[in-house]
Amino acid sequence: MLDEFLKNIEDKGLAGRNDRILLAVSGGIDSMVMADLFLKSGYKVGIIHCNFCLRGSESDKDEDLVEKLASVNNIPFWSKKFNTSAYAKKNGISIQMAARELRYKWFEEIRRKNGYDYIAIAHNLNDSIETFLINLTRGTGIAGLTGIRPSYKKIIRPLLFAERNTIERYCSEQKITYREDRSNSETKYVRNKIRHLVIPVLREINPSAEHSINETAERLGQIYEAVSDYIGNLRDKAAEKGKNGIAFNADKLKSFVHNDGLLFEL
User: Fold this and answer.
1) In terms of domains, do 182 and 213 share one?
2) In a domain, 22, yes or no
């Protein structure tokens, strides 16, 4: 798996060998495997961990495990406790969205202050497929049906090539210790509903459903890249600067061929 990991980083242009990478490690299986692969590959890394204080002592045990990993390998470590529930309530958003906002804002602060080039997140191939299905059920444009991006700004996702069962097998073979978040099995969350209830039914229809969905997402990603420049040119033609910011000229928008579809992408 290490060779595939390194090849994926090179093929996708995620990072150079001299880049400094901040590893976001939760203590779960994906991020612990990602950390193991980076440590074996010789990259200059640091480890960052968010304690969202949502699972009591279990959250603290996650933090302890990740801190131990950093200590044993003598690499820089940062952790922070967040009152995620209070933040979610104050901003009128879900716990999941609150955790996401808190996480990425803090990650970027640590990255900039400490001179890291990238932040590595341990999303895997199954996560990308689940994201495709979630966006499909909610309604989206082409971009929403491309799965999870391998990179965006300073975020890289070097495990997107690997299926969950491949990660589990590597973890077992390498005897990597990790923490299990019991909430991952609860179907009250949308992603877990997709993972535990929807995908098994899709496998009954097509045993290769996940592979087929991933291929579709990749093709849509290629289509999106092909049309994004065109969409950008149309946006520039229709956009007008006003006192209150950017506005779109309705007459120009209506003049575009297939304007309904283009409006969504704009």
Assistant:
1) no
2) yes
